[in-house]
Predict the structure.
Amino acid sequence: MQDSKDDINLANKNLVRKSTTISAGTFFVIAATLAVLAILAIYWLTGIKSSCETLNTYGYPMLTYEGEEVPYGSHQYQLYYYSLMDEEYPEEYAKYETQDMFFDIKFNNDLYSKHMGIFWVIEISSLFIAGLSIIFAIMKTGSKEADGSIRISWFDRIFVEIDIVLAALATIGLIIPFYLSQTWLHKGNWGFSLFNDLIAHNANVAKIQAWMDSRYFDSTLFDYVFEPKWILLALSIIAIILIVAFDLIALLSIVRRIKARRFWRSTILGSILHSLFESAAANPALSVKVLGFLIGGVILMFLGAALAIAAFGYDAIIFIAIGALIMIGLILVFVPRQIKKYETIRTGINELQKGNFTYKVPNLGVGELGRLANSVNSITEAQNIAIQNELKSQRLRTDLISNVSHDIRTPLTAMISYIDLLKNESPDSPHAEEYLKIISDKADRLKKLTDDLFEAAKASSGDIPVDMEKLDMNAIVGQALAELDESINKNNIEVILSNHASNSMVYADGKLLWRVIENILTNVTKYSLTGTRAYMDIFEKDDRVVLEVKNVSRDQLNISSQELLERFKRGDSSRNTEGSGLGLAIANDLTSLMGGAFDISIDGDLFKATVSLKKAY
C-alpha cells in the first residue's frame, strides 16, 4: 500500500514538473518570438534612416539607356556595371549614360524615435521574460524515476553533437522569416505607410525603396508570391515559433543529460570511449586483440599514405587524411558494438553452461552475431523442452509403477485371501464353488490387465504389424455395437449411431480399428452415467472420415483430456472401477499406427472421443 502511495506521489510530482516546464517553455517561445520580431523591425527602421542619410549625402549613380532611366538594381542596371564596364562592347556601352542623383529627404526623426522606443521596449521586455522562462524551464525539466534518477526520453538518446548541429541549422533558418518579415514591412500596408511618413512622402519613394533593396534586403524576393501581404507576417511568426521551439527542445535535452550525468556518454567521442572501456573491463584479452588490430590498421594506413604521396605527390594528403579519419571512425563505432554483442552471447553461453536454461540472449538484430544469439536461444529452448519431457517421463514412470502395483496387487490379494479360505474348506463345502469362481474372476482380470499392458507396450513402440486396406467405418462401428450390445444394455446406455458421410470408406487395419472402437465403447459402458444416451456420429471432413463419440460421465472429470490419454489414467481417481486405464492410451497409439488422429475433449461432464482416418475412394 505504501509503495502504491509513493508511486502516485511520484507521478503527481512528475506531472507538476512536466506542466511547469511546458508552461515556462511556452512563455519562452512567445517571448523569444516577440524579441526576434522586434529586432527585425529595429533593423528595418535603422536601414531606412541609414539609407536616407546616405542618399542625402552621396546620392546614387543614375543610369540611362538611350535617354531613358534604368531602374536602380534592375537586371539591365547590373548588366551594365558587371558586363559592360570592361568596354568590350563599345557600341552598346556608348548608349548608356551615368550621372549622380541626389535626394533631399526630409526624414521624420520624431516618428522614428517613437517607433524605435516602442520596439526596444518590446525587445528588452521579451528578452527579460525569455531569460526568466528559460531559467525556470532548465530548473524544472526532467521527470524522475522511483530511484531518483532523471528519466531519459528517446530524443535525449541522440548524440549531443547531432542535437547541436540540428539546432544550429534551425537557427540559421531564421533567414527565412527575416526575408518574409522584411518584405511585409517594406511592401505591406502598415510598413509602407510608416515608410512614407518617415520620408515625408518623398516623390522618389520607388527609387528610394529600390536602392534600399539592393543595400539592406531584397524585398522583391517574395513580392509577387504571397498576397495579401499579411500572409508574410503569419508565416514569419510560425517559422520563428518552430525554430525557437526546436532550439528550446534541444537545449532542455542537453540539460537533462547533464542532470542525469550522461552528457559525456551522449557525445560521439564519449560513447566510443565508454564502449571501449567497458569492453576492456569485461574482456581484456579480446580488447588487446582489437587494439592490436586497430594499431595495425593505422600502420597500414600510414604505409599506404606514404606510397600514395610517393606516387601522386602531396596533393593526395587531403584525400588520405579524409579516408583515414573515416576508417578510424568506422572502427571506433562498429568494433565496440560487435564486442558488446560478443560479450552478450558469451554471457548467455555461460548461463547455459551453469544449467540456467531459462536465460534468453537479448535480440541482437541481423548479422552473424545476431544469428549466433538466436542459435544459442534455440539450444536453450531445446534443452529446456528436453528437461521438461524428462521430468514428465519420470513422473509417468512413477505413476506407472504405482498404478500397475495397485491394479496387480488388488486381484492378487483377493486371490490369495480366497485360496487361504479354500484351504480351510472341505471339497464338498457349499462355499468352495463360490470361492473358486471369485478366484477365477480375479485371475481373468489379472490376465486381461497383463494382456492390456503388453498390448500398450507394443502399440507405443509400434511393434505391431499393420495391414492397411479399404474398410467401411460404418460397418465396423455397427458390428462393434452388436457384439457389445449386452454390456451396453446392462449399464442401461442408449447408443444412437448417425452416419452423415456419403462415403465412409477409410484406409485402416481391420483388427486395429476394431480394437480402437471396442476400447472407446468399453470406456462408454464403464464410465457413462446410467440411463443416459451416447452419440456416435460418422461424418466427412476434408479428405478424412471422422468418428465422434459423445457420452455423459458418471463421475466428475477433475482431470485434463491430455492426462486421460496417459497410461493407467482413469476418470475415477479412486480406481474403484474395473479396467486398467490403458484403453484410451492403446486407442491413441493404434490410431497413430494407422496414420490417423485420436483426440479427446472434456466439457464439464461431457466426454468426447474423436477418431479421424484417411478417406478411401
